[in-house]
């Protein structure tokens, strides 16, 4: 009779141990979830048309089908997953047009990363095409280490690596090839 009581207690002990282990696993998953922060934008906008002004004068117009603002994260940024179309104006009302398939703007550094069929054209007929281009807003400076094609009235050049001022007055290019008209 005593042997029977010992064997009937074993299934009860196994059930209690299994339940306590399952309970610990559930608590561990809850702790993991509490350390996980959802990565969702603070705001989400469709068909954006933003006008930037300087001293009452329009300095730029940004158009995008989608804008996601992540100002609620430690390193805030604005994401344009469907690309941008920007028109920038200088003080003489000269325009520069910028298009890309994707863009991301980092608030703390002032850097804009343009990606996918990036194309910049000016009223003077200058055009730069590349797959990725960075714009430093603080210094009004563009740069890339990617391959590029630069076209202006003097000719067409190709290369890898270029940096230039927003108004195209200063251009530094590396590893270039092409035909350019000179005064010689």
UniProtKB/TrEMBL annotation:
Q: What is the lineage of its organism?
A: Bacteria, Pseudomonadati, Bacteroidota, Flavobacteriia, Flavobacteriales
A Gene Ontology molecular function term of the record: lipopolysaccharide transmembrane transporter activity
- GO cellular component entries: plasma membrane
- Residue ranges annotated as coiled coil are none
Entry protein name:
LPS export ABC transporter periplasmic protein LptC
């Amino acid at each position: 009779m005593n042997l029977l009581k010992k064997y009937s207690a074993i299934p009860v002990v196994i059930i209690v141990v299994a339940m306590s282990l399952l309970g610990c696993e559930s608590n561990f998953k809850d702790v993991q979830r509490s350390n996980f922060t959802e990565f969702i934008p603070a705001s989400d906008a469709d068909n954006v048309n933003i006008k930037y002004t300087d001293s009452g004068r329009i300095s730029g117009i940004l158009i995008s089908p989608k804008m996601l603002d992540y100002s609620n994260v430690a390193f805030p940024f604005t994401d344009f997953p469907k690309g941008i179309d920007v028109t920038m104006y200088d003080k003489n009302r000269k325009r520069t047009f910028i298009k890309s398939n994707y863009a991301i703007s980092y608030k703390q550094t002032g850097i804009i990363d343009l990606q996918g069929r990036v194309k910049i054209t000016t009223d003077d007929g200058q055009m730069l095409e590349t797959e990725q281009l960075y714009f430093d807003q603080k210094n009004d400076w563009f740069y890339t280490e990617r391959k590029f094609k630069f076209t202006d009235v003097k000719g067409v050049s190709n290369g890898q690596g270029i940096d230039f001022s927003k108004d195209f007055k200063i251009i530094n290019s590396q590893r270039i090839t092409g035909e350019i008209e000179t005064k010689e």
